[in-house]
Amino acid sequence: MPRIGLKLWNINIDYYLPEARKLYSQGIFDYIELYIVPGHLAELSLWKGLEIPFDIHAPHSRHGMNLAKKKLRETNLQLYAETKTYADELNARHIVFHGGAGGDYKETAKQLENISDPRALIENKPIEPLPFIKEDFYVGSVIEEIGFIKNFAKCGFCLDIGHAFCAANYLGFEPYQYVEQFMRLSPQIMHLSDLKTNGTQDEHLNFGQGDLDLKRLLNILPANMDITIETEKKSKENLTDFVADVRFLLEKIK
């Protein structure tokens, strides 16, 4: 059976934090993957008080971290320092990094090598950026780029299923086969949500709202893969959608 992860942001302290405590005590999930919005170290003690296993997700292009740009090396290191504080204090197993946007994947590899954190995982991305990202493409969308970054920086790999499908569709590849090829890079964890399987931009749909064949997908993946569920949370006051998604996924695994 896979271990199930709940994706939250470090600023989600008003409603989701107490909900997470309750659901963890009920055995609904096994760990939190916490995305770090910069400038919020004051919230760290609240997350530490949960005494729940954590993975950490470093800031991405939306919050100023872009490992693919040489001119941002100093800024990226500052953002990593804050991320590292969270990872250290929460005893995180992994730190997930995006490869950046509009730059060079070899620069991403150099910066991750310089960071040299044994917990680092590089996450694959779609090619087509979301509208708020003012760049033409994401870095780390094709298998060869992820393989280069992983080998050069001596880091691990986080396989995002939606991102893999989006990249495959953009490039004209069969998406399930594209996921199978990504599996050759031995991912440590996986990000999963439903999606429209012919799209090029990830939508983070709740399970059952897209047309992803979960049975087919799960046959491709190792049975004990850690799965962080990255589906939409419609309510700002509870995690009911997440609980439904966990149950939906576990039914498919049986």
UniProtKB/TrEMBL annotation:
<feature type="domain" description="Xylose isomerase-like TIM barrel">
    <location>
        <begin position="49"/>
        <end position="249"/>
    </location>
</feature>
<dbReference type="Pfam" id="PF01261">
    <property type="entry name" value="AP_endonuc_2"/>
</dbReference>
<protein>
    <recommendedName>
        <fullName>Xylose isomerase-like TIM barrel domain-containing protein</fullName>
    </recommendedName>
</protein>
<dbReference type="InterPro" id="IPR013022">
    <property type="entry name" value="Xyl_isomerase-like_TIM-brl"/>
</dbReference>
<dbReference type="InterPro" id="IPR036237">
    <property type="entry name" value="Xyl_isomerase-like_sf"/>
</dbReference>
